[in-house]
Amino acid sequence: MSRFTLSASARLWPVIVVLIAANFIVLSMSIMIGEYPVPLSQAWKTVFGIGEPEYEFVVNQLRFPRSLVAFLVGCGLALSGAILQGITRNPLAAPGVIGINGGAALMAVTAIIALPSVPIALLPFIAFSGALGAAALTYFLAWRRGAAPMRLLLVGVGVGAASHAYITFWMTTRHVQNIKQAMIWLMGSTYGRTWDHFWPLLPWLLVLFPAALLMSRTLDILKLGDELSIGLGSSVERSRGLLLLISVSLAGASVAMAGTIGFIGLMGPHIARQLVGQTSRRLLSVSALVGGLIVMSADLLGRALLPPIEIPTGIITTAIGAPYLIYLLYRNRNRP
Amino acid sequence: MNIRLTGIVLGIVFVIFGLAASIAVGKSMVPLHTVIDAFTSFDGSREHLIIRTVRVPRALMAMMVGASLGMAGSIMQAISRNPLAGPEMLGSNYGAALLLVISMFVFGFTSSLIHMWAALLGAGLACLVVFMLGSLGRGGLTSIKLILAGATINMLLASMVQGILIFSEESLDEMRFWMAGSLTGGSMEMFVRVLPYMLVGMAGALVLSRQINLLSLGDEVAQGLGLKIGLMKTAALFIVMCLMGGSVAIAGPIGFIGLAVPHIVRFMVGLDYRWIIPYSALLGAGLLLLADIAARFIFPYQELPAGVVTAMAGAPFLIYLAQRREKR
Membrane spanning segments where (chain B) (predicted)? Predict the structure, then answer.
């Protein structure tokens, strides 16, 4: 085990370089592949505004921004999962578990189904407020002279369950066409995402990713357990609250833009852990790149598998993620 | 001892009261003597027809489903030794949903009887897969492996169901009511066909309650006391499979009864599963009957699915449990 960690930590930079290359390749393919193919020679030229004008619209208005949104969403979800798994010391904690997805879904579905007159451009902000609201409620309800990680997770499950009860209520009371829209949102989809989604999402990552990296040492200490962290002089509740806020904001912003894309918050950090080991600083950067790669690839697959039908990105990520989780279960079968 | 027996009698009275209320109360109120007339001197009037074809089957289904969910929940919490384990963790709900959607969307079956068998089969298969996945590796079936396997399979099945529904509006239209969990869809015919599974499960649970008691003490203790734990866990999960399969097939996924009832019961009778199991059956039946009655009245012009009522009442309860858990 220790040898594995050692070798895993030695290969941080090669891993990062390979992941960035893979992200570029998938991004290029996303620009090229589709109903209206774009040759490789034109793809990047068009992005930088020196390509042939016939590709201009498809590349710069449709495919490029959409893939970038997918990438950012993947980064955000995976980062959020990595932080959350650290502070709760539970490898199965994912943004969905502490009620974030439930809250975002509740608000978005209410807007889609009950108030169809709400402009679609407002949807991300509505969903974001729901995510933050649910997370705040979870934190508030789990607070008993401190927010013990286990209680946080369990209360989160409860808040999520309550949200889903209300969603079910809306689903059974309104017109089926709106409900289909809501279902697609619930599955998580990058369909039709544009610069209007990219620009509001970017600052969150630009601010919160470095913030998370800055706190990575604190996160490492928190992973040791409450008693030990207090002994090491860390103000556990404050740093945990701060990290939780970062994690929730990242997940909330991502879910707001693309719906509840499943399994990324679980899968990204797990794969990253296998690649570069446990240390938070390494884990966070690699998780982000892995998450972005998965969502961007899932987006491409969803478009390319059965054209002209688009398979929602969330279905693809679940189709990959669930077997991966089963594999994890199988691999760990001999642990107690 | 006698207090506990009195409790059972009170519980039976509670359930009978619930049954009567469920039959008599609704959009049209029916006096009780008319209910009796409908069976002793049936005159073919609209009122008698409603009683015989709608109200009575619905009340009986609520009773049996509630009892099954309560029992299945207490067994799950005993063998997983986890107070937050619900019977739906074995994957039965989404397993049923998946096979139901496939039978509707892929094969185009419309008969509600076929739907019922699809749900029953799906629930059973999902339980089986979770069970096998949870028993992989050293140490056999441990509670943590069972819960992880259940959560994973549930997520996988749920997204498969949603994936199919996005492409089929008709299925979505039917499934959204089914997925909410409701007692309005079933007929007496369906009920009679599912009943044997539930009865087998209930009988099994009562017969094995002593062994389940031992399982709740933990693997080492149970083994030390001479229990064949592998065999017993298999039997217990088979019982849960029968109970859950039966309830899901007639009422869809109704949440929180299975989770909450054993807690309330433990508060009343302590930790002895020989008492917890029958009490859970009675309380589960009573609560679901009440929830189903409430579902008719919360909104004046529209009935709510019973599953929405139980979830809205149950989620705060879950949060309360989670808050209390680490207080000790």
Answer: 6-25, 59-79, 91-109, 116-134, 146-169, 190-208, 235-261, 273-298, 304-322
